Amino acid sequence: MVALAADVGTNMDTIADNYGKALKAGNAQDFEASLANMKAAALDAKNATPPKLEGKAANSPEIQDYKKGMDELVAGIDKASALAKAGKLDDAKKEAQGFKAIRDENHKKFR
């Protein structure tokens, strides 16, 4: 499991590393373990501020939009995990491939 209170960059690295592992997982257990690590890092990152948004108020539209992006990722992780738990690993991996679009959209705004 990921240690809490890492900086945004460390959490993003954890998400990226485990994303690759999830897509290459040969079984549901390994897939779900990678997703669990991604989710922990995403939840931790949600409570931090990306460098590009330093100095913004916690209730600013930019910070709220950043948190929304992290929530979208967590929702996708939960959906993919549920598919894997239901024995639908191929469908779960297809769902996980959608995480790339969430990443790309949010990196444009916050990286």
Automatic annotation (TrEMBL):
Keyword Ligase: no
Positions of heme b binding: M12, H107
GO molecular function, one term: iron ion binding
Keyword Metal-binding set for record: yes
Cofactor remark: Binds 1 heme b (iron(II)-protoporphyrin IX) group per molecule.
Cofactor(s) the protein needs: heme b
UniProt keyword list: Heme, Iron, Metal-binding, Signal
Pfam family name, one: Cytochrom_B562
InterPro entries tied to this protein: Cyt_b562, Cyt_c/b562
Assigned GO CC terms: periplasmic space
One GO biological process term: electron transport chain
Annotated family: Belongs to the cytochrome b562 family.
Function: Electron-transport protein of unknown function.
Name by which UniProt lists this protein: Soluble cytochrome b562
Organismal lineage: Bacteria, Pseudomonadati, Pseudomonadota, Gammaproteobacteria, Enterobacterales
